[in-house]
Design a protein that fits this description.
alpha/beta, D-Maltodextrin-Binding Protein, domain 2, 2 domains, 36% helix
Length: 331
């Protein structure tokens, strides 16, 4: 918080020192948000670089994690105030009794998450008996579980190998793995190996529209205590998205710097995600049969997580979401 300031103005004409009443400075709230390097978070990277939070009296710092599974515990401990997670993570956490709620949809992965394999493997059914590298309890884990189910397989039919998404490219390049699950920018790193002739995508989030959904999350207690600050974070994100549309080249440079890739790669990877404009956001919170609704995707996610033994009960969708901010801003 900035201190209250007293300003003394010299009244030269009268030769008298006039004391001006104290004027409280605008309070600035500092927030920490846990995140990972992911192309769908581009508007947040832009907002961070351009300090778009400032006009909402916020000082937001993005805390980068290499393992997305470590973000929910950080949120619970107070190490971070908010988090960028995938919706399957939220369902899993709420099922375990955590008070985590989605306040804003960020994006739907549309190819940015994928299962890659060497060219000899062309379909999911061929995963049987193979060693597959992926990050447990993460979007990669969920995507793999969903893909295996489509081929009538389960994790019992493969040999799981635990590793972070960033470790998958090197493991595949060295020959440790013939199949790996990851997301951008690691995905492009794998596909580009051997001049693009070595590995390819066998199954991706394009095959499961809406199921890999990135969301902005806060605890229920924080939502009740800091509603104005959460609204400001969302508004700065929307400003970042508007900047991306208005200044695509400059935005790509900014995002590339945050992600450690080129502006050209940023533009290529953006085709693998769909960042929801404000007008679309309320639909995610409405009951519907399409997987772009949390009600529909949450049911599928819950059943998959329960079948896998990650949760024992499927939480009600209402326990995982808080649409108040999006609804108010979209009016």
């Amino acid at each position: 918080m900035r201190a209250r300031v007293r300003t003394l103005v010299a009244a030269a004409a009268a030769g008298v020192m006039l004391s001006v009443a104290a004027v409280p400075a605008q309070a600035v709230t500092t927030l920490k948000i846990g995140t990972v390097v992911w192309i769908g978070y581009g508007p947040f990277f832009v907002a961070d670089a351009l300090d778009l939070y400032k006009k909402y009296n916020l000082k937001v710092s993005l805390h980068m994690f290499t393992d997305p599974a470590l973000i929910p515990p950080a949120l619970d401990s107070g190490a971070v105030d908010g988090a960028m997670l995938t919706y399957d993570q939220v369902v899993g956490q709420v099922a375990q009794g955590k008070q985590h709620k989605v306040v804003m949809p960020i994006d739907y992965s549309a190819g940015g998450d994928a299962i890659v394999a060497d060219k000899s493997i062309t379909k999911v059914a061929q995963f049987k008996g193979k060693k597959i590298g992926f990050n447990p309890l993460s979007p990669s884990d969920f995507l793999l579980t969903y893909a295996l189910k489509t081929a009538g397989l389960s994790e019992k039919d493969i040999t799981p190998t635990s590793m972070t998404p960033e470790a998958v490219p090197a493991a595949m390049a060295s020959g440790q793995l013939s199949i790996g699950v990851t997301y951008e920018p690691s995905l492009s790193q794998i596909i580009s190996q051997g001049d693009g002739k070595k590995f390819h995508v066998v199954f991706s989030s394009k095959n499961a529209p809406g199921l890999i959904a990135d969301v902005l999350v806060f605890t229920d207690a924080f939502i009740k205590a800091k509603p104005a600050e959460i609204k400001g974070v969302i508004q700065a994100y929307l400003d970042g998205m508007a900047y991306m549309k208005k200044e695509p080249d400059k935005a790509a440079e900014i995002i590339g710097k945050a992600m450690g890739i080129s502006a050209k790669e940023v533009k290529e990877q953006l085709s693998g995600v769909h960042n929801l404009p404000l007008a679309e956001m309320p639909k995610a919170f409405v009951k519907g049969k399409e997987t772009t609704s949390y009600y529909a995707s949450g049911e599928i996610i819950g059943n998959l997580l329960k079948a896998k033994g990650q949760i024992t009960t499927i939480p009600a969708t209402e326990a995982t979401i808080d649409p108040q901010f999006v609804k108010a801003l979209a009016k």
